[in-house]
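step: validate -> pass
step: tokenize input -> pass
step: predict -> running
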Amino acid sequence: MAALLEFGPYRLDPRRKVLWRGGEVVPLTPRALEVLAALAEGEGRVVTKEELLRTVWPDTFVEEANLSVNVSAIRKALGAQPDGRPYVETLSRRGYRFVAPVRRRDAEGPRSLAVLPFAVLGEADDTLGLGMADAVITRLGRIGELMVRPTGAVLAHGGREPVQAGRELGVEAVLEGQVQREGARVRLRARLLRVEDGRVFWAETLEEEAAGLFLLQDTLAERLAGALALTLHGAQREALRSHPTDDPEAWRAYLKGRYFWNKLTGAWLAKAREAYRVAVDRDPAFARAWAGLSDTLTMLCLFGLLDPAEAWPRARQAAERAVEGDPALAEGHVSLAYVKLFQGWDWAGAEAGLRHAVALAPASAEAHQWSAVFLAMSGRFEEAGQAIVRAQELDPLSLTASTNAGLLLYLRQQYEPEVEAHRRTLELEPDYAPAHWALGLAHEQTGDFDAAVAELRRAVELTGSPLIETNLARTYALAARPDEARALLAALEARPGGISPYRVAVVRAALGERAEAFAALERALAERDHWMVWLGVDPGLEPLRDDPRFEELLRQVGPQAGPGRGKPA
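step: predict -> pass
step: emit ->
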């Protein structure tokens, strides 16, 4: 298959599954892009439906309707040719034909890149090297023509041998560098290496006044884009020069928040919250910092470490500030979508926000993985699976994406594969708390209660989360240790502020106490407990699903309810 396929105003990279119109990325799902590539490759030839199904869905049985849906999406995205004809023609009972002329050309330069944290020489702020890498990652990521590993993926590779780091990150090229502050000036040296053979095919030394740090980043990003043979259009050139903030101190505080956030444990999340707060206090227009603050408040609330009455209004305000500050920032729309879902049970609003985020940043692993979680919560598992696969293609070493991939298996009640998935995640980072938590849930469902208790206790130790303690109480109940389950649950309910009644219901269901479980769910409904959005897919509530009361609860909370319909005031 050719590296690039060009037709009309479009350019398709089949390998990276990206379609451009001019300088803009056209939002299409990975499956639709595979169908488009197969049709364009067969330019002028009838491609049968059977051939397309074999090519795009190998070793998987899917309905022919899936193909029709993807062809329809392609036609809608491409529009008509100048002569009014569609790009894809349907031949009744035979298949499809791509009727536009297709030009084939090899792509120039690498197609995937990791920017490692720069080494800091001499006396300098320890965030300077990470900040330089983050700036380049953000700028190139906004262009959309190159698959760039996100900052979170490269954090652990600072100081590593670059070619080996590139192999581990699964990229074709690595940018490494050194940055040094000397008095009033900052000097930067950067090298671009090909991972295949370690060859240096671009190097640059730049120097600027310390006050012109952002100008130094602009220059580096622009020259790197030239070295990567990226053909930039107006909006893309602007993306290279865009600054998330003009305040260096706000920027450093934001970087600290990013670093703390990636730990995803209680104490580190508290540090992230404070760092993001410093960033937005210094620059109230700093959209990325507002999005980070919203996400941190959301996670603290989900872990049970922050009162929902305090967390949700502040998380919403922060997400709204992010969207207002930079409407093109995908992270802000993701943050606001999840606040709408958890705080307001607004399924339609959340889905619209997540779709918009993916359209804004189709090369963002984060946008795809959080869309996947939402789709799974809605019971749309096939769509969720496609989204999480795309997230992992974009960031193969993302701990969050791999944990969420395991979560999809949990919600589909495929527990043995889930155990293996979480074990692989923990091989990458043994102290990643969400993976211990998820692995505990998987062991619980396979009946390996000793292993489940061990994993959940480790997750509690890392996070301090009372929420995860409710999972531990549930495991005790299933392991025929009801006294320990009730004692732990009583202790949690006696905490100042109590505990989520939804989580109480999950424990009561495991104890076989149906009346108490439904009473807790009714209380969760009245209190608008944010955990209620899991009602339709949570395996922990399986014992209650045959009761008409459960259907009524689901009607009032689930995706079909929608804003303002069938929900309590």
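step: describe -> The first helix runs from residue 30 to 41.
step: cleanup -> pass
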